[in-house]
# Entry
Amino acid sequence: MISGIILSGLFIYLSNNLKDYIYKRIKTNVERQLDLVKTYIEDVPINNITSYELDPIAVKIGRDLDLRVTFIALDGTVFGDSEVNVDKLASVENHLYRPEVQQAIQSGRGQSRRFSTTVKKDFLYTAVLFNKNNIPGIIRLSIPLSEIDELLGNLTLTLEIALLAAFLLAGLVSYLASFFISRPIGEISWAAKDIAQGNYARKISMYSNDEIGDLANTFNYMSEQIETKIEEVSQSKSRLEAVFLSMFEGVMIVDIQGTILLMNQALKNVLKINENPAGKKPIEVIRNLQIQEIVDNVLEPESELIAKEISTLLPEEKVLLVHATRIEKDKHTEGAVLVFHDVTTLRGLEKIRQEFVANVSHELRTPISSIKGFAETLLAGAMEDTENARDFLKIILTDSNRLACLIDDLLNLSKIESGKLVMEKKSCKLSEIVEKVIASLKVQLTDKSIIAKVNIPTDTPDVLVDQTRIKQVLLNLVENAIKYNISGGGIIVSAQEIGNFIKVAISDTGIGIPSQDLPRLFERFYRVDKARSRELGGTGLGLSIVKHIIQSHGGEVFVESVERKGSTFSFTIPKA
Ligand SMILES: Nc1ncnc2c1ncn2[C@@H]1O[C@H](COP(=O)(O)OP(=O)(O)OP(=O)(O)O)[C@@H](O)[C@H]1O
Ligand SMILES: [Mg+2]
# Structure
């Protein structure tokens, strides 16, 4: 396109200028020839200035110079003309008023360009005064300008051909340029777009040895490098993610502004977070001021590792140990990592242990101080009073029994808990064990006029249990059902087959248990009404032992109760 415009411009400029140039050249040539002709005429020996002398000269010069030569007298009469026969000269029009003739008469030289009516062609006329044998005259040379056009025509054709050739050449060159430069560059740019969109496997196939080939090779190398780097990055990212995900501890990462970048599933589970926390402040996601404070503190410059135990109430009561540390890069804080350990169970266990020690000491102290008190009273003289001394000794015996029972229970419990007690599991008939237990409690039942019913279907499969231990379980539960029952109440022991287990239930019509006490009922020493239980000789270890025995049989314990209506304790044990 551009080359086309340039070439056309050049063509127009050249053809115009060439026309001028050729015209000027012709003019100068003609003028020189005119001078030559003048000198020739003035020198050539001529006898008389007549048509018969001059016309042949005009013809000769005209033929030699290949132009029209005319000799004109000052009055306009034509003496000779290279193109007009001497005989016809007389009929030639008077030339006096030809512009070039007029100019020559006035200034010695004249020139005119016009259309000749004589020869019907565009002509350039030049005229000059001469003096031959003291007779003045005018020499006029005429040259047809059609020659210029002819010449120009030829030239134009040549130019046109050259232009076409140049055009074709330019086309060829630009095609070659596009083939060797634009196309490969286009391909490289497509490949670059592909890579930008994540298609790193994109390669450019180009095998030239030039700079573009080099560029393509470098590009392929670059895309390979990017691919490996991205691979590495995503691998380490997924490794990190896997670590985060599988971590038991909760992890939260915040940036320098304290905005959450990452929170692992473990932490989301602990804090029951369902939304995506990224991009939010901790306080917006976790409604806990302590966590926000830890984040704020750890992001302070120069802050040390923070280890703090916090407690959350919502959505449930939890004790969390938080370790927070700054992430530093080139001495600049980039953010912080917070690791959360759920220590709720640990703290709960510690609390239970403390309570246990307190409870045990308390339970031991009561009978011991009673024994000690009565022994001292006896020694102080009460021994003499035989009647009272007997009562005192009875109390001492009861309290010692209570102590022995308590210690037995504690030992049992610790044995079961530590797993040292081996369960001797055998196939037994459930109804037989139940009957034996009820029979052994006959005194207590009749004392409170309670009727115990056994409702175990005869086709109930045998159970695989340690008979002594299950007896202990049933004894504890039926004893409770009697102890916490009303006089004249009832007890039903029933059994039901559930999958591979038999579910045994002991229902009573007793005082029932408030619902808030139900979750802690199986804890050691836990008693709903401490005074009442102790009065009834209970230690609060019974249900705890029950739970442990059932658990070591692979079963579960359950309780349902309605205050003042009654309770149902049940457990599952495996079928034989
Ligand atoms: N059937 C029941 N009805 C009402 N409350 C019950 C029943 N069984 C247990 N409880 C409550 O649960 C508490 C714990 O029972 P557990 O058997 O562990 O202890 P205890 O009976 O007090 O003492 P122990 O059984 O060690 O002699 C009891 O103190 C009582 O308050
Ligand atoms: Mg009990």
Residues 31 and 287 are 113 Å apart (CA to CA).
